[in-house]
Each structure stands twice: as structure tokens, then as C-alpha cells.
Write a structure and sequence with these properties.
Layout (H helix, E strand, L loop, with lengths): L2 H18 L2 E4 L1 E3 L3 E6 L10 E7 L3 E3 L3 E6 L4 E6 L2 E5 L2 E5 L10 E4 L3 E2 L4
Antiparallel strand pairs: 1-8, 2-5, 2-11, 3-4, 3-10, 6-7, 8-9, 9-10
């Protein structure tokens, strides 16, 4: 096989492997201290989501913990249960439930790092 063709095939394999491992569940992360919060309150008429920017978050978040958030122009306090954390590159999303990922309450954190085990 021609060396250039072999190099292209090897490079394609590396790209495919990187793409397959792009998003993964993790148990704990280190944050920069701010995040974007998506809140999706239910009402009897409709369900819509609101995005809040620059929300203060603790420097360490882990599955099974709770994060107390203050957000909105008329400040609200919410205790966010952390049941799932998904890391995709330098971005992490913290979810309050395990089964859905669209139109649900979540905390988007960028950049984030996986926290080493204690």
C-alpha cells in the first residue's frame, strides 16, 4: 500500500476514535466558577426554557451533590440536584435528571476539567 494512503487511513482512524469518545459521563468536575443555567418550568399551558448567563457555581461539582444557585433579575434561589455530568471536550453539562437531555434543567460549564478522585 502507498505510504500516503496508509497515512490517510491512519489519520481517519484517529479522527473516528476521537469523535466516538467525545462525550462521556464523569463523576466530578472542576469549574471556572461561572456557568449558564437553563431552567424549564412547567406550566399547565406550555413548557418553555429560560437561559440565564454568568451564574455563580462552586469550583467543584460532583454527581450526588447539590448546587445552590441564585439567578434572574428578580433573584431566585434554587437547589440543583446533580444526577449526571457529561463532558464533551472542554465543555460540561450538569443535569438534574438522567433520562432526558433536551429541554430540561441543566448547567452548561465551559471550560471544565474532570476532577481527580479523592
Amino acid at each position: 500500500m502507498h505510504p500516503k494512503r496508509l497515512a490517510v487511513i491512519a489519520f481517519a482512524g484517529v479522527i473516528a476514535a476521537a469523535g466516538a469518545a467525545a462525550a462521556a459521563d464523569v463523576t466530578a468536575i472542576i469549574t471556572p466558577g461561572t456557568a449558564n443555567l437553563t431552567m424549564c418550568p412547567e406550566s399547565w399551558m406550555y413548557r418553555s426554557c429560560n437561559l440565564y448567563h454568568h451564574i455563580a457555581v462552586p469550583p467543584h461539582i460532583e454527581v450526588g451533590g447539590k448546587v445552590t444557585l441564585h439567578y434572574g433579575s428578580n433573584p431566585k434561589r434554587y437547589v440543583f440536584p446533580v444526577v449526571r455530568i457529561v463532558q464533551d471536550g472542554d465543555n460540561c453539562t450538569v443535569f438534574s435528571q438522567t433520562d432526558q437531555t433536551d429541554n430540561v434543567e441543566s448547567i452548561a460549564i465551559a471550560p471544565c476539567r474532570v476532577s481527580p478522585p479523592p
